[in-house]
Sequence to fold (231 residues):
Amino acid sequence: MTGTPYAIAEGSSALLTTGIVLLVLGGWAVSLCLHEFGHAAVAYRGGDHSVRAKGYLTLDIRRYTDVGLSFVLPIVILLVGGIPLPGGAVWINHGAIRSRGVQSLVSLAGPATNLVIGGLLTAAVALVEMPIGLAIGLSCLAFIQVIAFVLNILPIPGLDGFGVIEPFLSPNTRRMAARVRPWAPLVLFVLIISVPGVSSVFFQAGGTVFAAVGGDARLAFAGYSELLFWR
Fold:
């Protein structure tokens, strides 16, 4: 790599910023598909064969439930708030899944996919010689994948982390969770972007996981500066 993240940030051009924004948003859109594919693939192996008929195993976004809410909204939220809020795109027939343990794995598969993508991207940056601008863009995208994992693994109704534990909860607890499921993730998003303490803890946790998978924080943060160029 030539140059440094700081030099890039100081001498950033409109072309570089545009390239990084398109790379990150495009990569995030692809990872949203892969996230949902992870859910569907594990569900299929676990007994819900309806996911094939629904087209969830094709990676065709037109087959998902709501392209606007599942893809457009998460991309807009990422660009505006810098938070990779996941979208719910596939319907799983949990009654067809053969065990509670497999139901947990279905929920875990999505965020695990984000973590694997983040790890692969950081490995590419570390091992492949590339221009500094590309390294910054890929590092930013990798950090976003890790942040998506940290966010989505939280045991909050509406997020996959809650889906991991939900099969083992009492019926009353599941009914209570169902009441808050539609808006709980949005409340969390508002807290992250508006309460400094919550935001700090969240991004520190993401930074810890990012470092654990070999990420370069300098490159990632330089990429975030380019992604949120309007700030």
About this structure: The chain has eleven helices and no strands. The chain has a mean pLDDT of 89.
